[in-house]
């Protein structure tokens, strides 16, 4: 919890986190300065080029893109993309292959859809995604059941409010229980069962989104990387499943109990990847 980090910055690893962020900030600052030296608004190859063009063209001193303020905001954004996004994506990938080996029928069904839609000898692309409802269902079920960011991020009330009989003064810190929402028996009936079919219509031909699953939180402060995360997970999972067969080692697999932390990771395990022959 945040108050523990303040009381015990060494034991909780908070100081190490600060040092890591400081190093990352310095690296991004060097990268941006190098790019600025060669940047041309006539050549826009990537996100950095577009952002730097916005900084160069901004004359409003109150803008978040204005000069050095714009550079600082760009660094913060890059840190969010690489630090926050990479850890959660890594955790979800590790969970995904563990669940597939724990639920072989889901694994076989997912592999069959990829083969049927993409065909052997081809790699899946985002163009294939609308034709793959079971893939979409597996990804949403995986994000629901793992809830890797179980508590989301801290928020606070901007004014005093009354909610469900409780008075919350302005400035009250709010920690959402995303895990609880996604494992509520009244909502999901069997929340601890990995069942992608809950996201499909009766004949399993169509994916049906359920707004009650909120792995990226809700509202105006929802995680800005929601869509990027789905695209990344789709690409990683489908290409790996299309290319390799995944098998457990003789050591077996761990339970589905997560390791405690701000981001929930599975227990350590090893698997074998073999190139698919058919």
From TrEMBL:
Q: Which InterPro entries match?
A: Cyt_P450 (IPR001128), Cyt_P450_CS (IPR017972), Cyt_P450_E_grp-I (IPR002401), Cyt_P450_sf (IPR036396), Cytochrome_P450_fam2 (IPR050182)
Which keywords belong to this entry? Heme, Iron, Metal-binding, Monooxygenase, Oxidoreductase
Cofactor names from the entry are:
heme
Binding sites annotated in the UniProt record for heme? 223
Q: Which GO terms describe its molecular function?
A: heme binding; iron ion binding; monooxygenase activity; oxidoreductase activity, acting on paired donors, with incorporation or reduction of molecular oxygen
List the PROSITE patterns hit by this protein, alphabetically. Answer: CYTOCHROME_P450
Stretches of the chain forming a coiled coil according to its record: none
What family, per the record? Belongs to the cytochrome P450 family.
| Record protein name field | Cytochrome P450 2L1
Q: What gene is behind this protein?
A: CYP2L1
């Amino acid at each position: 919890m945040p108050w523990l980090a303040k009381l015990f910055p060494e034991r909780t690893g908070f100081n190490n986190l600060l040092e890591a962020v400081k190093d990352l900030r310095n690296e991004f600052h060097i990268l941006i300065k190098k790019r600025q030296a060669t940047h041309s608004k006539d050549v826009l190859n990537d996100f950095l080029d577009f952002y730097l063009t916005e900084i160069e063209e901004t004359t409003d001193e109150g803008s978040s893109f204005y000069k050095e303020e714009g550079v600082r905001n760009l660094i913060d954004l890059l840190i969010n993309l690489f630090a926050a996004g990479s850890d959660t994506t890594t955790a979800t990938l590790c969970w995904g292959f563990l669940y597939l080996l724990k639920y072989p029928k889901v694994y076989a069904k997912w592999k069959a859809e990829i083969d049927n839609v993409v065909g052997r000898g081809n790699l899946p692309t985002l163009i294939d995604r609308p034709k793959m409802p079971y893939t979409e269902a597996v990804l949403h079920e995986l994000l629901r059941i793992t809830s890797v960011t179980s508590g989301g991020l801290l928020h606070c009330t901007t004014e005093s409010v009354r909610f469900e009989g409780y008075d919350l003064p302005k400035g009250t810190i709010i920690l959402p229980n995303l895990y609880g929402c996604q494992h509520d028996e009244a909502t999901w009936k069997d929340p601890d069962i990995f069942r992608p079919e809950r996201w499909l219509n009766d004949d399993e031909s169509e994916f049906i989104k359920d707004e009650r699953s909120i792995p990226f939180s809700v509202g105006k402060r929802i995680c800005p990387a929601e869509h990027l995360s789905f695209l990344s997970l789709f690409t990683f999972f489908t290409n790996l499943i299309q290319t390799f067969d995944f098998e457990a080692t003789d050591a077996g697999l761990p339970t589905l109990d997560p390791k405690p932390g701000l981001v929930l990771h599975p227990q350590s395990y090893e698997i074998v990847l073999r190139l698919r022959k058919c």
